[in-house]
Every structure is written in C-alpha cells, then in structure tokens.
Amino acid sequence: MIILRLFIVLVALLLVISSGMYIFTRDHRYLKFAWQTLRFVLLLLSVFALLFILERYVLVGWKVLL
Q1: Which of 15, 42, 47, 55 lies deepest, with the highest CB count within 10 Å?
Q2: Residue 30: in which H helix or E strand, if any?
C-alpha cells in the first residue's frame, strides 16, 4: 500500500508541475501531457481496483466453496 501512496503523491506532484508550467508558458503541450497522465493514472488505478476486488471477493469466495 505504501507503493500505491507514493505513486499517487508522485502523480499529483507531476500534475501540479505540468499545470504550473502551462500557466507560466501558455504552451498547450504541458496541458496535454497533464491530461494524458491523468487518464493513464485513472486507467491504472481502475485496473488495480478491479484486481483488488477480484482478490478480495472472488478468490476468497472460491475458497469457501472448496
């Protein structure tokens, strides 16, 4: 769990820095990078949550049936 927290902190820092760079330079590359990073992180967290739910309920339920 500590790795997940560290990942979220680093991504938040990356988004803040790239948004700040957009504000200072008005270059849309930084905003596009921030948006792509946010989409990738949301996808990655969704996969992680799905795997967590799978492990939590499906595999534990399977052990009950056996």
Answers
A1: 15
A2: helix 28-53
State how many domains the chain has.
1
d(CA 66, CA 25): 61
Q: Which 8-state DSSP code applies to residue 25?
A: H
> Rounded to an integer, what distance in angstroms lies between the CA atom of residue 4 and that of residue 12?
12
Q: pLDDT value at position 55?
A: 84
- Where the chain has pLDDT below 70, the residues are 62, 64-66
Cβ atoms of 33 and 18 within 8 Å: the answer is yes
Residue 66 has a pLDDT of 63
Q: Report whether 25 contacts 55 (CB < 8 A).
A: no
- Residue 7's domain spans which residues? 2-65
